[in-house]
């Protein structure tokens, strides 16, 4: 478990009494502290007088706020319909029963998020894993399957541990249009595509069945998740999924906050531009550095690994170096990753250029002390 943190503002956290620059997490636009988002949350609690609806939406826990937010999300993402879930992880799990009844085979990226893998296993139908981000490998598997209309390909839109993007265009052109896609766009939603409509939103999907699962805890800075897709898919989740029908939704106030966050996301295009500008600045700093290993930035997340990071004393040295530079040591341990500990960093729209320079200097000193290499999920095979 990571150390307890308290946020000071959009850039700083309090860590053991020290104000440190924060490059962790996934709050890419820092909407978790936006005044409009906080205002909607507070006013909702005051008006309703309660926090939880206390029951599943299939019984007595439904609320018009949830239905309004579902309509807003479906409209923004150009989907026919949407259904909310209590957490982003549950969005994928809620599809398991749909797979069981409407699919014969699932084709999944070998490094897909664990929630996609769990949903596939929970469905109980045959699973075929293809080499990470390799459209040709996925196509070869698909060509061996006899009923493409009952097959679904499952992949992250953006892989949140290293910031790489799924080759959705290549997958679309190389696979039969009868094969449905499930895109876990937890990280891409709000950040990728025109106006933040998500990974692959610029692709003309034709007649392909596209199902998106998203997290409301990243770009929107709130909580919860959603499945966005055709009416048939969403109705199947609502009527057949034991995961969906059996869990209590997130508080109504968070639904109001999510709605406010989505409004800011759509209207505040300057915030989108600031994120793009910061990504460009960080990319330039890393490319110009002769000391740091090369990193390709296509998303505001990047990671470093190092053999000596497994040593507790070396990790302590890394933490000390970051803190000396005024940067929170964003060292994470992710289940299923052979590297063990990673330095995972995320750029936000609200970081300042000087913050990025400080981060670069801290990384340079850490590299001199322990040696770093760029981390990519593709290297985990």
Structural class: alpha/beta
| Mean pLDDT rating | 94
Which blocks of ≥5 consecutive residues have pLDDT under 50? none
| Overall spatial form | globular
Walkthrough of the structure:
This protein has helices spanning 35-48, 64-76, 88-93, 96-102, 114-123, 135-143, 168-174, 231-240, 242-245, 252-267, 269-288, 312-324, 353-370, and strands spanning 6-7, 12-15, 18-21, 81-85, 105-109, 127-130, 151-156, 158-159, 164-165, 180-184, 210-215, 225-229, 301-305, 331-333, 341-346, 373-374. By secondary structure, it is α/β, with parallel strands linked by helices. It folds into two domains: 6-33 and 268-376, Alpha-Beta Complex (Aspartate Aminotransferase, domain 1), CATH 3.90.1150.10; 35-266, Type I PLP-dependent aspartate aminotransferase-like (Major domain) (Aspartate Aminotransferase, domain 2), CATH 3.40.640. The chain has a seven-stranded mixed sheet with strand order 4-12-11-10-7-5-6, sandwiched between helices. The protein is globular and about 55 Å long. The mean pLDDT is 94.
